[in-house]
Write a structure and sequence with these properties.
By secondary structure, the chain is α+β, with helices and mostly antiparallel strands. Helix content is 20%, strand content 41%. The strands form three sheets. A seven-stranded antiparallel β-sheet has the order 4-3-2-1-5-6-7. Strands 12-11-10-13-20-19 form a six-stranded mixed β-sheet, covered by helices on one side.
Length: 425
């Protein structure tokens, strides 16, 4: 079908086209507690097509998936509809990526069997107890082969692993029982990291049963040590995106500090070609550009933009790409030092968000640990608020780092003076 689609695109009179052919080979396991309920092997292929049409000073784009089971006539009909739809889109004209003059990387197909074995062993080595254990879990282990082609002659392929674990944890006492859900993404299996994550979740479930209402603290330092911290670092990453800058949703400028009068740690953020155990280790981005390491923010100063071909070209950035992995460097203090004094460490939110344009943060507290005068109180309920525009002026990051799939960030992040609304009694 792929050859037929390419032939039809060349015949359709387009002004450009892109085709992504993704083949996925995977194993899936479904467990009730630790009893295998069912498993299956998955082999699927998806072909996605984008068509470009020029008119006046505009370039229109339309995209769809063409089923691999489609007939030639059905595929031709879909491509014809894309050409018509593309004429309805009025984007300022830009050009598609050209073949890169870089040597192709040596790539090997991931060993799905070995990755699955690591996941299964990890799940069987968890410190469960009578009061906190695994209710159920599902494992999805895949090897991906992604081929990208465009009308300018790009024809590149990436192969990499992509895995996912869905885990449901139960914790109980004589009065209550609660359930915690977790979804872990990775490439291959970080066995020890997965065991640590689920072990902490078992502890959080137990602590949640004895939590008190969060008091009205006014303002308080807040420590982030779980995946909610990713929202903080994505704020910095997103504001270096060419699409955000072109739309005037980011006011940062290259060569200038992202924050003035900084008293805390100055942030450094990088895009990475690869990151161990990441599910985003593709050698090429979704537009066929080779992915490489690139410093985005260096010691608090904006250094490079990143983004799609379209908005990067509007910004005059010709060597653009869309990174798959990011890393924020650690700060000047240890995790233990950042856990001193009075603070609220929130390990679980019902929801936590950082708005990219304004920097506003908001989240509902599901589980936290309030440290004051040498005592620790387990709390729940209430909310946090404030803005990163203020917090990034005195933000402290641990030297130790922690990886969450395609992001490597400081293990502990401390924000000063966050507004805390307590839970009603």
């Amino acid at each position: 079908m792929l050859e037929t689609i390419i032939e039809l695109l060349k015949e359709a009179g387009t002004d450009g086209w892109e085709v992504t052919d993704t083949k996925t080979t995977g194993w899936e396991f479904y467990f009730i507690r630790h009893q295998l309920d069912q498993n299956r092997v998955r082999n699927v292929e998806h072909i996605n097509v984008s068509v470009y049409k020029k008119f006046d000073s505009f370039l229109g784009k339309a995209s769809t998936e063409i089923p691999v089971s489609a007939s030639r006539e059905e595929a031709a009909d879909l491509i014809g509809k894309l050409c018509a739809e593309a004429l309805l889109v009025k984007n300022p004209a830009y050009s598609l990526n050209m073949p890169a003059q870089v040597p192709a990387e040596a790539q090997t197909m991931p060993d799905v069997r070995a990755i699955a074995k690591d996941f299964l062993n990890a799940m069987n080595e968890l410190p469960e107890s009578e009061t906190a254990d695994i209710n159920s879990y599902e494992l999805f282990i895949s090897a991906k082969e992604v081929r990208f082609m465009n009308s300018n002659g790009i024809d590149v392929t990436s192969v990499y692993p992509s895995s996912m674990a869905e885990v449901v944890v139960n914790a109980r006492n004589e009065k209550h029982e609660i359930e915690l859900y977790r979804l872990y993404h990775s490439g291959s299996c970080d066995k020890e990291g997965l065991k640590q994550e689920i072990s902490e979740t078992l502890k959080y479930g137990t602590d949640r049963l004895s939590a008190q209402n969060t008091p009205n603290l006014g303002t308080c330092d807040v420590v982030f040590s779980t995946d909610a911290s990713l929202q903080i670092y994505e704020f910095f990453i997103d504001r270096m995106n060419t699409g955000m800058k072109y739309r005037q949703l980011s006011n940062w400028e290259l060569g200038k500090p992202v924050a003035e009068d900084v008293k805390g740690d100055r942030i450094t953020v990088k895009a990475l070609r690869s990151l161990e155990n990441s599910s985003s280790n593709s050698a090429y981005d979704a537009e066929g550009a080779p992915v490489r390491d690139l410093v985005l923010i260096n010691d608090g100063v904006a250094e490079h933009w990143w983004g799609s071909r379209q908005f990067s070209q509007y910004m005059g950035v010709e060597d653009s790409f869309i990174p798959g992995n990011f890393a924020a460097e650690g700060g000047t203090r240890s995790a233990a030092e950042l856990r001193q004094g009075t603070f609220l460490e929130i390990v679980e939110f019902s929801d936590f968000q950082v708005e990219t344009m304004t920097g506003a943060i908001a989240g509902e507290i599901r589980l936290g640990y309030y440290h004051s005068n040498g005592t620790v109180t387990v709390v729940t309920g209430g909310s946090v608020s404030g803005t990163m525009m203020d917090f990034m002026k005195e933000m402290y990051m641990s030297r130790e780092q922690k990886q969450y799939n395609n992001m490597l960030v400081p293990a502990v992040t401390r924000l000063k003076g966050v507004s805390i609304t307590g839970a009603a009694d």
